[in-house]
């Protein structure tokens, strides 16, 4: 394999001159530049990307932390993130699944501290902010699909409060007065905003909420099956359920129908995300549509701005709009 020293010897120039040509820098005559490029082509020389990155103090690698990639939402988010925005700038994207494990999240941040990556996108928060904040001095960290009141960094997501409010308001307009609420993790700021939207809608229409109408750990279809069993054992049963998750909604609907319920006559169900499953179930699922692909694209663009341009990190909350998609389940 040809080396920069060999090119310098054949062209009777210094290593520095060859390096200037390779990096398209000035102070090399036209004739000498053409001679060096000719030799480079003859020897089929490829410069070391590792060396270039070391000189530039960049790895051209960013990391994205998600709970799990087999969830349709996070799969689509990654599809948006690992797109033209990063690739056109020659960045590689590392995907880390935390499985909601605090230690794994900190391992991702340790890569930033060790200068093995240039920036991190956290798509959920497993640790308290006090443990994450010290890593800000190591490089840019952005939040995506998650919020934190104390985080002095860019946060890109969507209006969770408004999404919940319009979903519950729609159920109220359909005549429902007993509306249940599903959530995944109680400590999630995003889930707290959804809950606040739910409660505000009930309050605006002078409707009560009942603690037994809150159903936690709602992640997937299996959880939906479980939640329906919990729902039918409640003394005062809800007539509608805002699940916050299309997979959970599908599980609830399946178990309801197997149990002799009619959807939406006996139980109306609303999902969240507008995944493909909403259109292939029977009945089809009313849901909240969120711009997942755009969300992934936007957060990578924002992170690269801080890496490439050295823009100072500051708190900036960007909320993309959502839309209620009405189908048969309500």
Automatic annotation (TrEMBL):
Keyword Acyltransferase in annotation: no
Domain HTH lacI-type: 2-56
Pfam (any one): LacI
Any one GO MF annotation of this record: transcription cis-regulatory region binding
Parts forming coiled coils: none
Annotated protein name in UniProt: LacI family DNA-binding transcriptional regulator
Keyword annotations from UniProtKB, A to Z: DNA-binding, Transcription, Transcription regulation
């Amino acid at each position: 394999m040809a080396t920069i020293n060999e090119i310098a010897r054949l062209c009777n120039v210094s290593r520095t001159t060859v390096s200037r040509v390779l990096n398209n820098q000035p102070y090399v005559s036209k004739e000498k530049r053409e001679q060096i490029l000719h030799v480079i082509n003859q020897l089929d020389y490829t410069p070391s990307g590792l060396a270039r990155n070391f000189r530039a103090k960049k790895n051209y690698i960013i990391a994205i932390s998600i709970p799990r990639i087999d969830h349709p939402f996070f799969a689509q988010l990654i599809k948006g993130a690992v797109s033209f925005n990063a690739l056109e700038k020659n960045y590689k994207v590392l995907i880390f699944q935390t499985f909601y494990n605090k230690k794994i999240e900190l391992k991702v941040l340790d890569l930033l501290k060790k200068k093995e990556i240039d920036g991190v996108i956290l798509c959920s928060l497993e640790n308290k902010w006090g443990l994450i904040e010290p890593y800000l001095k190591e490089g840019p960290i952005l939040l995506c699909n998650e919020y934190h009141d104390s985080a002095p960094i860019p946060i890109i997501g969507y209006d969770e409060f408004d999404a919940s409010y319009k979903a519950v308001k729609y159920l109220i307009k359909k005549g429902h007065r007993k509306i249940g609420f599903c959530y995944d993790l109680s400590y999630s700021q995003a889930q707290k905003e959804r809950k606040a939207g739910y409660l505000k809608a009930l309050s605006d229409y002078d409707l009560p909420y009942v603690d037994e109408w809150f159903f936690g750990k709602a992640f997937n279809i299996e959880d939906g099956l479980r939640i329906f069993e919990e729902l039918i054992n409640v003394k005062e049963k809800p007539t509608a359920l805002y699940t916050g998750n299309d997979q959970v909604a599908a599980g609830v609907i399946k178990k309801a129908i197997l149990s002799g319920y009619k959807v939406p006559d006996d139980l109306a169900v609303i999902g969240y995300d507008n995944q493909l499953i909403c259109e292939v179930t029977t009945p089809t699922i009313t849901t909240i549509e969120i711009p997942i692909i755009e969300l992934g694209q936007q957060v990578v663009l924002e992170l690269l701005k801080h890496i490439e341009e050295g823009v100072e990190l500051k708190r900036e909350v960007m909320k993309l709009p959502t839309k209620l998609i009405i189908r048969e389940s309500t």
